[in-house]
Amino acid sequence: MGNFTGALRSPRGHATGPRGTCDAGKGQRGRELTDMLNDVITGSIAELLGGCAVFVTVALVSGARRRRGARRSTAPGGGGAATRPARTYTLIGTRAPDGHVVQLASSRPAGTVITWPEPASDRRQRFELTDAVLSDGTYAAEPLDWYR
Fold first, then answer.
1. Is the dihedral of CA 44, 49, 54, 59 positive or negative?
2. Is 34 helix (H, G, I), strand (E, B) or coil?
3. Which residue among 55, 85, 140, 146 has the highest number of C-beta atoms inside a 10 angstrom radius?
């Protein structure tokens, strides 16, 4: 075989020097830079997705706790700290069949309208719960039908 003095070619078509180094060094460095950026971006995307997953999980858990706490505080008889204590209300102007005043316990706030069925008839009477304290220590439930 004869002397071959022509430039050698790399597998990518770049002309190489005597030791096989690339004469077009920018292409090799560019490839290394591209590989390095690819590794960094790939790692960053994984961390970004992991962070988003953690954020979404925390948001869902806190939202569920908030909803559960709201339900617990408004439920009658719930043991939560935000529930109202039960008050005893006296239904003004109403008597039981035995002649005693009618009292009922409720944790509903003042201003709530309740319906009480009269035991002697099929008639129903509406009462509004108030913050007025009577002499026996109960709260007044005023009849609404009297004022109409």
1. positive
2. helix
3. 140
